[in-house]
Amino acid sequence: MNRLDEELKKALQRVEPPAGFAERVLAKAAAENREKTRSWPRFDWFGASGLRWATACALCIAFATSGLIYHHEEHKRGEQVKAQLMLALRITSSKLQIATQNVRELSSEQPQP
Asked: What span, in angstroms and rounded, lies between the C-alpha atoms of 55 and 61?
C-alpha cells in the first residue's frame, strides 16, 4: 500500500463516541420535541425563510400598489385626453358651421344662370 491508502485507512477507522454521547443526543431531541409540541407554531420572521417570506410579501404589496397608482394615473390621463378631444371637436364643428355659412352666403350672392 502506498502512503495515501494508509492515510485514508487511518482517517476512516471507526472511533468510539465519547461516553454518554447517545444519551445527550436523545435528551436534546426529546427536549426540542417537547418544546415544539408545547408551544404554538411560531414563524421566525427574522430567520432565513421568514425573511424571504417577508420580502416576498413586501414586494407583492409594492407591485400591487404601483399597479393601482399606474392605473389611476392612466385613467386620469385618459380623461384629460378625452376632454381635449371633445374641445377639438367642438372647435372643428364651429369652424365647419362658419365655413358652411360662408359658402351659402357666397352661393346666394352669385346670380343664378
From this structure: 10
The residue ranges of every structural domain in the chain are 7-45+53-58+72-109
**pLDDT above 70: percentage of residues in the chain:** 86
pTM: 0.42
Q: Which residues contact 44 (CB under 8 A, 6 or more apart)?
A: 50
When comparing pLDDT for 109 and 98, which is higher? 98
pLDDT at 103: 92
Contact criterion met (CB below 8 Å) for 50 and 44: yes
Other beta carbons within 10 angstroms of residue 53's beta carbon come to 13
Residue 6 cell numbers, joined: 494508509
